[in-house]
Each structure stands twice: as C-alpha cells, then as structure tokens.
Amino acid sequence: MSEVIVPDRMAVAQAPTVAWTPLGENAILVRSICDAIPAKVPVAVDGNPRNRAQTMVLSWRRPGAEPSAATGFLCLAPAPSVDGSGTGALLIGRPGRPLRLILAPKPQPLQAFLSELADDAGQAFPSVVDGLLEVLLTGAPNPRRLRAVAMLLQTVARPGGFVEVMGRLDDIAGAERSIFLQGWTSHFAAGRVKLLISHGGLSPAHLETGTFERDDLGEGARGFFGLLEDCHVQHPGEIERLYFRGNDGWRALEVYERYVLLEPITVPGHLRDGLQRGTAPQATADKLKRASQRFDGRDTVCLLEEPVRAGIDSVTVVEGTGVLIIGWLFDPERRVGGVTLRSGSQSCAVDRLWTRVQRADVTAAFMEDPRFGPALASRRNNHGFIVFAPKLLPEAGQPLHLAFEVQGTGPAFLPLEPNRAPARRALERVLGLLDARSSTANAVVERQIAPALQAAEIAPPRAAETLDVGAFDPEAALGLVIGLDHRHRELSALFALLAMDPEARPLPIVLAAPSESFDRVGAEARRLARFYGLSVRLVAVEGVEDACDALEAGVRACRFNTVALLSGAAQIRMPGWLGRLERAYRARGGQCVASPTLLFEDDSIRWAGAWLEGEGASRRIANRFVGYPLEAVGNLGPMEVAAGASECCVLSRAAFIEVGGFARNYFTTAEKGLDLCLKLRMAGSPSLWVPDVEVYAVDDGETAAPHAGVLAQLADRTSFDRRWALAISNMKG
C-alpha cells in the first residue's frame, strides 16, 4: 500500500460523533463505523496533522448495514489535550479520503464501552477482542490498559486447565523469589510461557514449565509443573486466575478451590520430582534444576556418592552477635569448593572465615570404611573446624543450614539445630575444648573467639534489688563501692578494717554482689554493718560475670560525687589508705584515676603503675615491677602512669558514667580495667599511681572457667590490641 498523507487543509463532510474510553494518561480507545479502513493508519489528534501517530485498526463486517456503515472498527489514539484547548477531533488518514471523527463530550466507562462493542461486533467480538488484547499488551503496560485487558480476558478467555498445587520458593542470596505451580492443561507446551496473572489487578509474568503424563486426564491433556517468575505476586494465595495465549486464542488456568499450598522448604523436592518424571527444553530444565538444588530440610551430604561427609558438634546462636559452629568436614579429595551458612535471605561464606583443627577421630572413623578409606592416602587430620559467623542471626521461621558446593554434583545441605547462649558463656565453653599448648588454639582464639567477643552485644549488669543498712547517704561527696563476683569472699575482715579506719568508717558504702549469692552475702553484710555501725547499701546485681560488672552496677546505684572502687579480690593492708588516695586525687583537681600499689600475699609487687614501652607500632603498655619486692619502688611520690588499677582506685563518678563504664567485651578484669583507664585518659582523666598506698590483690583466677585462663588472656590481649593499638602508638609519655 502506498503511503497515505493527511493534508494540512481540506474540506470534509460532516464528521460523526464517536464513543471513546481512556486507556492511561496518553491514549484513548475509539469505536466508530465507516465504509472501509485498512489495518494500519496515521491518526492526527485535535485535527492537527503535526500531532499524529501510527495506529493499528481492528475492524469487523456489519451485515445488513448501509455501505457507508458496513465496517465497524476500533483504534488506539493519542489522548486529547487535558486543558480542553483542542478541537476534540481525530483525523484518520486512509486511501482516498481521510476520515474525520468528533469525540463524544464525555468518555464512556470501560465496561459500558466493551458492552456496546460486543453488541455491535456480534460473532466477530472474540476475534476483535483478541486483536485488541494484542494491541493493548504491546509496549509498556499501565494500570488502565491492564484493567481493560482484565475485563476483556474475563469475557473471551476459555477454560485452559487448573492449578492444583502452589508454593513459594523463598529467596536466597543472589536468587529471585519464585512461585511453584503444578496442575494440568492441554493448551501449552513445556518451555517458557508468557502469562497474565489476575490477583486483584493484572500483571505479566513468565512460567518456566515442564510437562508430564497423567493417566487421569483426557486425550491431549498433560500435567505441568514449573516456576512463576518476573511477577509481582508475593504469595500464592493472591493468585485468582492465570491467562495465556493458546493456539486457538486466550485461555484461563483456574486455581482449584481446594489447591494444595506447599511449605517453602518442600518446594525444591517437588521440583526434583517433576524433573524426574517429566520433560522440558534444556534451558528450562537447567533453570528448574538450579532452583531444585535448594535446602529442603534434609541432610543431603550423607547421600553423596563422592567421599564427602560432614558433622556438627555444636551450633550456638550468640545472642545479638552471630553464630558459632564447631564441626568437621571429611573431604580428603578436596571436592568441596565452598561452604555457606544460610538462614532465609542471610548468608555467610564460613569457609573463608573458619579455622581448621585436628580431628584424628574423624580420620579413624573413615579409615575402615571401604567407600572412603582409599581416599585417605595422606595422613591429614585437620578435618575439624571452628567458625564464628558474625551478624548472622536465624530469621523467624527460617531454618539454619550449611550449603556445600560439591564439584560435579552441585550443592548439598546439612540442617543445623542451634542452641542459644549468652556470648561470654558460649565462648568460654569453646575455650575449655582447646589445648592451650597448641598453635591451633591460638589461631582459634585470634580468628574466632576474640572477634566474636568484640562483636557481642552484651547487656549491662542491672541492679535488681537494693537494701540500705544504717543512715546511708547516696548523695555524699565521697563513697566506697565494693564489687563481688561469684566466688566466696570473707567479709568479716574487710568490714573490721573499714570500721577501724577513722577516714573510711563515716563513709557510705555500696556493696554490690551477684543476685545468685545475694541472700548469703546480704545476710552477712547486714549483720556486720549493724555490728560495726557502718552505713551500707546492699545491691543485688543481675548479669554479673566478674567483679567489674558488680562495680559497674554499684557505681550506678549511688550518686556520689567521687567514688572509691574496691574489688572483692582486694584486701586492705593499712588504715588511712582511702584518705591518702583521695588527697592525691584532689591534688590533681579531681581529674584523674588515683590507684595504690597492689601486692601479692607475699608482699611482692603485683601492680606498680602501667607504663608505655617501645615506639610506634610496637609500643605497648606494660607493668614493669611485677614480682619485684616492695622495696624496689623506694620512696617515690605520686606520678602519672599510662593506666591505673581498677581493683582499687578513686575517680570521678561523672567521668566513669560519661565514658560508659567498663567494657563488657573481655573475659578478664585486667583488660577491662585497662580499657576503662584508657577511655578516661582520652576523656581528660589520666591515671595516677600513689606508691605509698599499698593494698593486697588476691590472685585466685580471673575467669569463671579457670582452665581456660591462658586462652582467655590471649583473647583479651588480641581484642585489646585491635581496639587500642593505634591509639597507644600515638600516645605521649
């Protein structure tokens, strides 16, 4: 056909008024009649030939009509001007004579428009609608067009089968969420099928599908299974109907009223079952196979033909922190390319983080197995692993599992059943499993334990109950705070020494103890306080791991301007100790941490100031006089040091609160105290050593699990260095 030109000006006959309905913001659907019209024409909007577009025309014969009205037609046209500045006319170019149409003053509702179209088109209505659907689905969809498509499909789509089973295939890292469908049809083949989903609205999607034979269906009908992709449906229950274009027009897949809704974890198994009994083009089969290789709650590692097996000794969800796993992987031929911990959409590549450990028991167990024994050509025993997966916390309702990428096979899975435990308790349990003499233990501590403890969100200790004995003044200018841990402490000697000290006796005293031992400790403290006439506030503390936790809660349970801290591990050696510390503190304007010399029970030095040693990156804080006789310090006066001793010191309560008190991310009180003093130093309160004040500090073990003491100290030193090494390297002094 030669090109049809719409002239700029020409005389035309009286134009008919035509019905129309809007389709989105930029298009309208027009219905009219004429003598004849081609399938593709230019249309000019508002009579302006410069505002024109090409459009497809859908026409039908009108039997019995006059020749001038023998053809009915539909076409899409650009929408008229919103502001009403246009003429409301359309000029349609066609061979011979252009057709001028006047739009009705008001648009018709879509339902009424389609109803009149059906009356006029008669038997041709299905084919007209079919063509109209093709036009409406061309280009970018918009809500009005899709609403029109939905109404048309309800009118013309014929039954095409049923959906009987549905289930959501949950998202994993790097994969899109899909919906599994299974049912029957006789109107599409296996492969990639375009669909329109009715779910309150209408949206496009694709079904990657395979088919299989079913004995219960009629001739030509087959079962289908597959994954619905690229769709906006979030849950299978939203799906009302699915439309597709068959060889003989549009068809509808109805959702069976009593359809089976699968749990997400069971969907991969249904996909595997479909692939085993059905067929699909290679591209579709590959995609469905990849989707089927997801965790379905089973241990599939034990089913592998390859010499790969795995086992778990313990899985602990460290509260607010991550997951700690101890287990083993038997892989003598190195078939496993990666190991990932997953829960829902969360994942962590644990094989990049773990520390491998010797497990001779695993080697011995498989050595006698004829299936795997030959693979153990070498005597490698490092089948074990310990790993901390940071910030991965199991999602509600989502199982926790390990995924193993096995060469030539694909992923295999191992379900995990985690326990929950507080961070410090869970990590101390791991320390107890390690041989402190091995290099592996050091690697585990540095790479797993220390990072886990530093990342832990540990709730602060909390005063659960307080009881005052005597005239306790919580607002005193100076008060003493004593912190006890879970170990038994003899209070009678301490209270007697406080009562005999004229500078300490008038002071209000806070005694903080773990709530678990509060009944026993509280009863003894009340009796002694009344006997000696001391004013004491007893504080039962929840969440105590060591004396620092008790001291923290004790400081927060009073409002003293200045506090003297005394750990339960400290024992007073002489009267006047507190007065001399407090005077040294006042001499520095109340902006320091004043600490005495700490002694072992044999009067040798345990602590006599913490000092900076070395330069640059090798700089560190050291206790120079440890083990020396007391006479080694001579008659020195108060002097500034790098850090004080939290076992016994005087400091500002406001400064303590401002820096956040003791850090909880250490096993031992030594690093907790050092950390506190450095925070205070950075905030303007340096540490002061007062040599002539001497206090005993009983060295009876730092941790609640003494057997793990060496490794706990290593973990704390590693954590401390990570936090403070840069700051220490730049400190002056």
Description:
- InterPro entries: Nucleotide-diphossugar_trans (IPR029044).
- This is Glycosyltransferase.
- Helices cover 25% and strands 33% of the residues.
- It has 733 residues and is of the alpha+beta class.
- Mean pLDDT is 88; it is low at 1-6, 8-12 and 702-707.
- Strand 15 and strand 16 (322-330) form a beta hairpin.
- The longest helix has 21 residues, at 709-729.
- The chain has a 7-stranded mixed beta barrel.
- It is elongated and about 125 Å long.
Largest sheet: 7 strands, mixed, barrel
Helix content: 10-25%
**Measured on Cα atoms, how large is the radius of gyration?**
41 Å
Count the strands? 36
Binned strand content: 25-35%
Tell me, rounded to a whole number, the average pLDDT.
88
Q: Which structural class best describes the helix and strand composition?
A: alpha+beta
- Described by the principal axes of the CA atoms, the overall outline is elongated
Question: Which strand order does the major sheet show?
Answer: 1-2-5-4-3-6-7
Distance between the termini: 96 Å
Low-pLDDT segments: 1-6, 8-12, 702-707
Total helical segments: 15
